[in-house]
Amino acid sequence: MLKKAFGVDCLSDRQMLRWHKAFAEGREDVNDENRAGRPSTSSFDDNVKRMRDLLNTDRRLSVRLISETLDIKKSIVHEIVSESLGMRKVCAKLVPKVLTDDQKARRVETCQELWILRRQPRFP
Fold first, then answer.
1. Does domain 41-118 have CATH number 1.10.10?
2. Which PANTHER family match (predicted)?
3. Burial class of residue 77 in the structure, from the number of CB atoms within 10 Å of its CB (0-12 exposed, 13-18 middle, 19+ buried)
4. What is the domain partition of the chain in residue ranges?
């Protein structure tokens, strides 16, 4: 009956039995409980901050060099650079994907100035 109502989003029979047993034994919350395991070796937010600081000093750093400098896996470096920092590689330089309003306004001003200069006669 539940599978007809919820389709693929329905829990399996086995999982329903596990939850039933857990609540029958006194569990009151569906959130994960603390458990033993391998501790996290790096904090994602700290890595993002360290990487942002490093890229502000030199935007021409490669993913490999960032990985070696910060001692983080290359796949994590690539994920942070592209998703968290919103940057991409353009002509061997990491640049923001989205321009700020100030950057957009400055580009418009520069284009307008160049357009005006193009129309003026050249100096002798």
1. yes
2. MARINER MOS1 TRANSPOSASE-LIKE PROTEIN
3. buried
4. 41-118
